[in-house]
Every structure is written in C-alpha cells, then in structure tokens.
Design brief:
The complex is a heterodimer of chains A (530) and B (492).
Chain A: H1 11-33, H2 36-63, E1 75-78, E2 83-86, H3 87-107, H4 130-137, H5 145-161, H6 165-183, H7 190-222, H8 227-236, H9 241-259, H10 267-274, H11 277-302, H12 307-330, H13 335-354, H14 370-392, E3 395-397, E4 400-401, H15 411-414, H16 416-430, H17 436-450, H18 454-480, E5 489-490, H19 495-513, H20 516-525
Helix pairs in contact in A: 1-2, 1-5, 2-3, 3-5, 3-11, 3-14, 3-19, 3-20, 5-6, 5-11, 6-7, 6-11, 7-8, 7-9, 7-10, 9-11, 10-11, 10-13, 11-13, 11-14, 12-13, 12-18, 13-14, 13-17, 13-18, 14-16, 14-17, 14-19, 14-20, 16-18, 17-18, 17-19
Chain B: H1 2-19, H2 22-46, E1 54-62, E2 67-73, H3 75-94, H4 107-126, H5 130-139, H6 141-150, H7 156-187, H8 195-199, H9 205-222, H10 230-238, H11 241-251, H12 253-266, H13 268-294, H14 299-319, H15 323-354, H16 365-368, H17 370-383, H18 390-405, H19 407-432, H20 445-463, H21 466-483
Antiparallel strand pairs in B: 1-2
Helix pairs in contact in B: 1-2, 1-4, 2-3, 2-4, 3-4, 3-11, 3-15, 3-20, 4-5, 4-6, 5-7, 6-7, 7-9, 7-10, 9-12, 9-13, 10-14, 11-15, 12-13, 12-21, 13-14, 13-19, 14-15, 14-18, 14-19, 15-17, 15-18, 15-20, 15-21, 17-19, 17-20, 18-19, 18-20
The chains are: A mainly alpha (530), B mainly alpha (492).
C-alpha cells in the first residue's frame, strides 16, 4: 500500500495557472446566477481581467526564477514535480495568454453581424427549426463561450508545463474538450459547424486514446510517468526498447494530431472552416503554441537521450507536412481551408526547428538553440494567424462571411487598408524579409542545418517556394483580379477586432525588423528543467 | 552616415508620397528622388578611388543570429548606387502622366512604389552583411511586384505573379546557402554574417560548392541567365517601360553584383570549379538571347530579350577571371543600364503614340518624328556595340578577355555582335523607315529632356571611359586577389 503524501502547492509560481482556472470556474457561476442582460459584459470583463492578471503573474514569476538544481535551466518543479515552471513554460504561458486576450476580443466582437456575436443563439436548437428562429428573434447569445475558452486556455498552459505523462494527458483533454464544443457554435452555416465539431471530437478522442496507450507503454518501460525518471531509464538503457519505441510512436500520434502534422492533418481544413472564425483564430494560434511546447518538453526532457530514434521520424513527418500542406493549400478555393492547409505546412516548418535539437556542448557560444528558434517561430506564427483570421471575419456579404477566395477579387480597391493588412500577414506566412515570418524561418532552418538535417532544410526551402506561390496567388486575387458581381464588402469592426488586427500586424512588423528582444527573451528562457 | 541617409531618403519619400494628397504626390515623389540623387552625388564625392570598402557603418542588428546592420561601398557599389539614383528620377519623369492612365493604379502609387524600390536597391548595393543583403534583396520584390501588377498592359497580374515566383524561388534557394554560411561561421567559433568575418573563414571546398550553387541559382535567375530567364520577356512585355527600366537596368544588376561579391568574394574555390559550366551558360545566354530577340514582334519583349544577351556578356566577363574581363563586365553593367534605359523609354514614348507595341503594325515613324527616331537609333546602335558609344568599350574588353580564356569562347561571343547589329537595325528599319501608317507627333520638350542625359552619357563614356575605369580597376584587382589569380600583364 503506497502512502499518500499531500503535495505542496507553490501558489506564487502557479499563480498564472490558478487565476485562469479560477476565472473559468467563476465564469460558470456567472452564467448560472447573473441576469441574462448583464452576462455579456460581466463574462468579457471577467475573462479579460483573469487573463491580464495571469499575464502580470507570468511577468512577476519570470522576474525572479532561480537556477534549478545548478543546471542550465531556471525555474522550479511545482506540485510534487508534476508541473515544471521553467523558462520555456513561462514563455509559452505569456504567449498563450497574449493570444488569448486577442481571442477574447474577437469573441466579444458584435459589430460585424448586425449586433450579435459570431456564436449561435441557442446551440441546442436544431438548424432550420422554429426553435432556432425563436432564439434568433429573441437575440439570445451563448455567453458560455467565455468560460469555455478560459478552460481551454488553462489546458493550453498546463499542457506544455506538464512534467509527467499523466498531467500532460490532463492538460491535453482540458485544452481539447472546450475547443470541440466551441467549434460547433457558429451562428451561420450551423450544419457545417456542427459537422466540424463532431469530426474534431471523434478524431481528437481517438488521438487521445493513442496518447494514453503510449503513456501506458512508456510507464511499462520506465516504471514511472515522470519525465526525469523516463530520461534516467533511457540513459541507463533499462527495460525493453520495443516498449520505448512503440510508446514513443503512440505518444507522437496524440501530440502530432494536435499540431495537425501529416498524416494526422485531415481534421484541420474541416474544423478551421466550420468553426466560428474567432474560434478558429484562437484555436489555430493557441493550440499550436501549447502543443509544440508539450512536444518539445516530452521529446527533449523525457526522450532527449533517445533522439536518434525519434529524429528520423520527425524528419519524415516534417517533410511530409510541409509538402502536403503547401500543395493541398494551392488547390483550395476557400480562404479558411487555405489557411488551414497552410498551417499544416507551418507545422512542418516548426518541426524542422524541433528536430534541430543538439546537445549543448555541440553549440558555439551565442549560437541559436532549437528551443529558442521554435519559441520564436511560435510567437511569429501565433500573432500572424490570429491577425489573418481576424481579417477573414471582416470580409462579408449578405450571407455572412465571404470565405470563397474568388469573391475576394477587387478587395484592394474596395478596402485598401484591409487588403494591405491581409497581404502583409500572407507575406509574413510566406516568410518574406522584414516580416516576422522570415526571421522565424531563418531561425528554425538555422538550427536544423546546424544539427546536420540538411535534407530537411533543402525540402523546407523547396516547400517554401510552393507555399510562396499560394500566398501570392491570394494577393493577386485581391489586388489584380476584376471583382465578380458587386465585389466583396468589408464590415467595419468595433475597436475589439481592430485592436487584435492592429496588434497582430504590429507584432509581425516589429519582429521582422527588430526581432532581437524576443529572440533574447527566448534565449533567456533557456532550457527545460530536466 | 551618408549611406543610411541615402537609403532612408527614398524610404521616407515613399511613405510621404503614399499619404500625400493626389495633386501633390508626384511633386513630393520627384522631390525625394531629387534629394536622393543629391545624396548619391555627395556619397560619390566622399568616395576615394582605390581605398577599398569605405563610408562604412556597422551596428549589431540581431545579436543572437550574428546579424549586423553594416553598410559600405567599394567601386562596384558606388557605381551601382549612382546608376540607381540617376535612373529613378528619369523613370519618375517618364511615368509622370502614363501612370495615371486608365486602368493603372495611379501616379501616387507608382511614385511611392518606385521610391520604395529605390530604397531597397540602394540598400542591396551597400549592404556588407550577408543577411542584411538577403533581407533587402527579397524586399525589393514587393515593390517590384506591385509595379508590374499595377501598371501596364492587360495580363500584367499574371506576369507579376510569374516574376515574383521566379524571384522568390531563387531567393529561397539562396536562403539555404545564407544559412549555410551562418552554420559555417558558427562552427568556426563565432556566428556572424559580416562579409569581412566570413571572408576570413577558410571554407572547405565541398561545402563551398553547395553554398555556391545556392547563391548562383538565385543570381542567375535575377541576372537573368539561360535557362532561368523566362520571366524576363513576359515581364517587360506587360509592365510599363518605366518599370522595365527599374527591373532590368537596376534590379537585375543585383544578380551580377551578387556573383562578384558573394560567389567570387566568399567562395573563390567553388567559383573556379564552376567556371566551365557558367561560361557555357553565359555563351548560350548571349547567342540565344540575341536570336530570340530577332524573332520578336513586340518592341518591349525584344528589348527585354536583348538584355539576356547582354547579361550573358557580363557574366562571361566575370567568370573568365582576368583583369580585362572583370573590368569590362563591371563597365558593361553601367553601360547596359544607360543604353537599355534609353531603349525602353524611347520605345515607351513610341508605343504611346502608335497605340501598339507590335513592330509589324508600325512603320515610317522617322518621317513625322525624326527626333524620336534619332534617339531610337542611338539606343539601338549602343545595344549593337557601335564604336563611339559606351557599350562598345565594355563589350570589346569582355570579348578580348574571352579570347584570352579560350579561343572557342571568344569566337562564339563575337558572333553576338553580328546578331546584335541585326536585331537593332532590323527593328529600326521596320518601325522607323518605310511607308508610314499614320503620322505621329514628335517628342516634346519633357520627353527630350528625359532622354537627352542618357544619350549624352552613352557618347561621353564611349569616348572617355577612364573615370569609370579608375573606379572599377581596384575592385577587379581586389576580387581577383581573393580568387587567387595572379595579376599577369597588369591592366591596360
């Protein structure tokens, strides 16, 4: 009989995590007790306050993290070693929180669609029935989306900070479940949205199963769920290596599904297209950041000593993701699907950075590290994606958002500012210099090449060419094609969406011109606690 | 400081122009272009012949990647800077009314994008950090894309996309090599992108070859060279002549500029290793470009393709590794800029009058517009290498160097003179002489004012190339010393 010891909770270090969770729970209470008329304001206020308080917490914690156990990493292991509050965790927390604030602003937008938000009036009403019409007429709206999103943010923070397989699984589920639900809540094109949610849920649940199975096998191998213990077991080469390899493979399936890597990318276009655009924006940016944080922690901390086994797999998946994503994106006629496939390609580029792991004694002084490169890329990608989807929500016609690309023809004349901003985000995704995307690409390609993965870098360069064509094609449609019929119209957003877009564009520009501070911050974040 | 000012002036000018009222935009734009010209002249005055890299500025830009904001010019750089600052005001004046025509994106955006392009080009010619060079090299493409796509004939959107894809493809291939240089420098101790740091590293021959391939493909697309030239004719056909001047006379020089500075400067062993292949490609470009030009019916396409031939000469001059060839090549870069600019602009004025770019539909222009015909002839003869006009000097130097390299190379190159005379004179004959279709108005004062400086420069440098050669010779010596070729027989 194992004796149960109560873990000590490091409240100060976990403050960001706890405040987001608290705000989410409080949101549920608000939903139950606050009158309907006041809910929107109180939910938005509560969520924003929670996120800002958490962000302040991240800064405070980051200011006085101490070196851990005289190693290279800084931070502490909290709650009995299950949560690692180290440099990379704090960086990712800060990034997720910043993206979530942008997400909340998009969620709260009510100017674009005649005074109502992008969410269904009553999700339980079957599309096309009287119940739905009644809900619309009563101007109902779901304010549950805010606590749901806060739960997802909590998951996104727990996931990359988890220091054992079980906590990581909890993080994965807490992050995923609210997103499944949010995907199905679109006000317009509800069937598409519900189909997307179901698809996301089924495949997601399936991939969680893979993850859990993998965790069990790894436990069988190492006799522990703890990453440090697994690392120890790998170093000492105890147990059966087939358990280790199969376990690693199954865990990879669960994690690579979340980032949408080929061959687990099938859900991305449908979900990105069907989900309400604010949800897509938040999900696309946030999930990728969190899941890559988790991937790096699992593979670097627990399986770093076994990297000769998993790096070849990463090579293949990175190359496949880049090419399949870019090639399929070209064939899309819907802008949200196009961005979805482009996100698959970006997953490949980020994996290029992940597989650029080198031991610290192989690096020159001041040379960029793999963690640094990936964290920087995630920052650039997160803000560009958030901004790009925010712009997508502006271009509309009578039926709501116009996501068919050929309907965007003439946008350059109709609304020069919107077209210019969107073109700028596309150029950033294409990795054109003086945008953040270029520096991100430069960083991940550099670490991969330094680690000797030149075939991946060559493939990445070739895939970048294919991807560049795709983004330029959209720019050409916006600027140089004649509009079809009346052409697109642009809805004027309230200050909420406008802020998100402006911040996204500003970050994209500043990180392209002066990436130094953020690269340094990622360098200061240093290594994971091992 | 002067180089930063030189870059900032047009950049600020582009922004100011873009946000100024439509009525004032052109005046603001030309004002900034004039100021940049002035700054360019100041830089040229400060420049000392035979003092290596000068007017340098170095600041750390991105510390964790070893990137610097580092500028400086040598003889090659200062000539390219001067060519740029001189051609841009001329292009703006030539596009004064045309860019406002029906269907175009408006004079304001033409002026703003042109100034943005000027700023980026100047940064390219003055960058002494490989990554800074790469950044501005790629950044030139965005203004160029909007200039091609926004102004000119129908089908330009497609042409712009083709242009951009070609250039980006080249750029991304080069990115792999740029990153390769970073890794090489990191392995040698300190990661850095500074040209001076990189030149000091002894890169092993096999790595050099890979890096060379990346750089060379990008520069060959830019230059352009056979077989990656196919964007050229489409672009010059659809874009306005002014845009074509910016692209062919300024931007394409980046290709040969980069070959000299990066391929020869940083990867000397690989450059020598690749010489046979490059020389063959250059010869194919020379002959193929001229032959295809002869067969064209579209004036702008024809002029675009002649550049393929000329760039073949420049690349040939660079890769025969002799003082004469190198000097000839750099001189050619300047002369080609002037002569081709003249051709494009005259052709533009001609097309405005006849309403067609088809040679077949023109004829007899010289009767009603003798001045126009005169400029057209000067430009054509310059392209054909007539003695007394400046391209002759550079072409001769390259051909002589080619014969020194190998008699076969020289004899193939010399064929191009015949072909050039053929396309230039035949084009003149078909458009300017013969029975006239409809009389056209001759050039007005503005147009003569635009063309005269170019024609004058052709004549002056045709007879007195020495000032240019004094600037060029030290660069060639330095470059060849880096490649490790002994200076046999001195120069001139």
């Amino acid at each position: 009989m194992i004796e149960f010891t109560k873990p000590s909770v490091e409240y100060f270090e976990l403050w960001p995590l706890l405040v987001v969770f608290g705000a989410a729970c409080l949101g549920v209470v608000v939903e139950a007790f606050v009158p309907r008329a006041l809910r929107y304001a109180s939910q938005v206020g509560l969520a924003l306050a929670g996120l800002v308080a958490a962000l302040v917490g991240v800064v405070l914690v980051a200011r006085d993290v101490q070196t851990y156990d005289d190693g290279a990493a800084r931070g502490i292991l909290a709650v009995g070693g299950t949560i690692a509050v180290d440099g990379p965790s704090l960086f990712i927390w800060g990034l997720v929180l910043a993206l979530a604030i942008g997400g909340i602003l998009l969620f709260a937008e009510r100017h674009l669609d005649g005074g109502s938000s992008a969410f269904a009036g009553q999700a339980s009403a079957v599309p096309g029935t009287d119940a739905e019409t009644a809900a619309v007429a009563a101007r109902r709206e779901h304010t549950e989306v805010y606590p749901l999103m806060m739960f997802a943010v909590f998951g996104m923070m727990l996931f990359p900070a988890a220091n054992d397989l079980l906590t990581m699984f909890v993080g994965l589920e807490v992050l995923s479940l609210p997103l499944y639900l949010l995907s199905g809540l679109a006000r317009r094109r509800r069937l598409l949205s519900q189909e997307a949610a179901l698809k996301y849920f089924l495949l997601g649940a399936f991939s969680s199963g893979f993850f859990l199975y993998g965790a069990a096998l790894l436990y069988g191998y190492a006799g522990s769920m703890d990453f440090a213990a697994i690392n120890e077991a790998v170093r000492n080469d105890v147990g059966s290596s087939s358990l280790l390899l199969i376990g690693t493979g199954l865990l990879s399936v669960g994690l690579l599904f979340k980032v949408g890597a080929v061959p687990f990318q099938a859900w991305t276009p449908d979900v990105y297209q069907g989900a309400p655009t604010p949800v897509t924006a938040f999900m696309a940016a946030g999930t990728k950041v969190a899941a890559f944080g988790a991937i790096m922690r699992l593979f670097y901390v627990a399986l770093g000593a076994d990297r000769w086994s998993w790096q070849p797999m990463m090579w293949i998946i990175a190359i496949l993701s880049m090419f399949v994503g870019a090639a399929l994106a070209i064939t899309q006629s819907d802008i949200k699907r196009l961005l979805a496939y482009s996100s698959v390609a970006h997953t490949g580029f980020i994996l290029t950075g992940v597989l650029g792991l080198q031991a610290s004694d192989q690096l020159a002084v001041g040379e960029i590290t793999s963690v640094q490169a990936v964290l920087f890329y995630l920052t650039t990608y997160g803000f560009a994606t958030l901004g790009a989807f925010a712009v997508v929500s502006l271009v509309r016609d009578a039926g709501g958002e116009t996501t068919a690309i050929d309907r965007w023809a003439g946008l350059g004349k109709e609304s020069p500012v919107v077209a210019a901003v969107f073109a700028f985000f596309l150029l950033a995704m294409a990795g054109i210099p003086l945008t953040s995307g270029f520096v991100g690409k430069l960083a991940v390609f550099s670490v991969a090449l330094a680690a000797g993965a030149w075939p991946v870098v060559v493939a990445a360069v070739l895939a970048s060419i294919v991807a560049a064509y795709l983004y330029i094609k959209v720019i050409k449609v916006m600027y140089f094609d004649e509009p079809v019929g009346d052409g697109p119209s642009v809805a004027y957003p309230s200050v909420l969406t406008a802020t998100t877009i402006a911040v996204g564009a500003a970050v994209t520009l500043v990180l392209g011109v002066l990436p130094g501070p953020v690269l340094d911050l990622a360098a200061v974040a240093g290594e994971f606690i091992r | 400081m002067i180089l930063t000012i030189l870059i900032l002036l047009p950049l600020v000018g582009a922004l100011v122009t873009a946000f100024s009222p439509a009525a004032l935009a052109r005046l603001v734009g030309i004002g900034f272009a004039g100021a940049t010209l002035l700054a360019g002249v100041v830089a040229a005055v400060q420049y000392e012949v035979d003092a290596g890299m000068q007017l340098t500025e170095t600041y750390v830009w991105i510390e964790s990647l070893g990137v610097h904001y580092a500028l400086g010019v040598d003889g090659l750089g200062i000539l390219m800077v001067l060519l740029t600052v001189v051609l841009v005001p001329i292009v703006l004046l030539a596009g004064w009314r045309e860019s406002d025509a029906e269907g175009n994106s408006g004079a304001k955006s033409f002026f703003a994008w042109t100034l943005a392009l000027e700023a980026m080009s100047l940064a390219v010619f003055t960058a002494t950090d490989v990554l800074l060079f790469y950044v501005v090299f790629e950044a030139t493409l965005i203004p160029a894309y909007f200039l091609i796509g926004g102004f000119g004939r129908s089908g330009r959107g497609r042409a712009a996309t083709k242009f951009l894809i070609y250039q980006l493809a080249g750029g991304l291939v080069m990115l792999a090599s740029v990153i390769g240089l970073y890794v090489v420098s990191a392995n040698s101790g300190t990661p850095s992108f500074l040209l001076s740091d990189l030149a000091a590293i002894d890169i092993d021959p096999i790595t050099q070859r890979w890096l060379f391939a990346g750089f060379f493909i990008a520069f060959a697309i830019k230059a352009p060279m056979f077989p990656v030239h196919t964007w050229l004719a489409d672009t010059t056909e659809k874009a306005t002549p002014g845009t074509s001047v910016l692209l062919v006379c300024i931007l394409d020089k980046i290709g040969t500029f980069g070959m000299l500075r990066f391929c020869l400067g940083l990867l000397p062993d690989a450059s020598q290793w690749a010489t046979p292949a490059v020389v063959v490609l250059a010869l194919i470009s020379i002959i193929y470009g001229a032959l295809v030009a002869i067969g064209q019916d579209d004036v702008l396409r024809l002029i675009g393709l002649t550049s393929l031939s000329h760039f073949g000469f420049i690349v040939l001059g660079i890769f025969v590794f002799s003082p004469t060839g190198g000097t000839g090549a750099i001189l050619y870069m300047v002369n080609h800029g002037i002569a081709t600019a003249l051709m494009f602009l005259v052709a533009g004025f001609l097309i405005q009058r006849t309403g067609t770019a088809s040679i077949r539909e023109m004829g007899g222009v010289e009767k009603s517009a003798p001045v126009l015909a005169g400029f057209f002839l000067v430009g054509g003869l310059a392209a054909a290498g007539l003695p007394g006009l400046s391209p002759f000097v550079s072409e001769m130097m390259v051909i002589i160097a080619a014969f020194d390299h190998h008699w076969l190379v020289g004899s193939v190159a010399v064929l191009a003179i015949v072909l050039a005379a053929f396309y230039a004179l035949w084009m003149y004959q078909r458009t300017m002489t013969g029975p006239g279709t409809t009389p056209v108005a001759d050039l007005d004062k503005r147009e003569v004012g635009i063309l005269a400086p170019l024609a004058l420069a052709l004549v002056v440098f045709g007879f007195f190339p020495m000032p240019l050669l004094d600037v060029i010779n030290p660069v060639v010596d330095d470059t060849l010393a880096q490649v490790g070729i002994a200076q046999e027989g001195g120069q001139q």
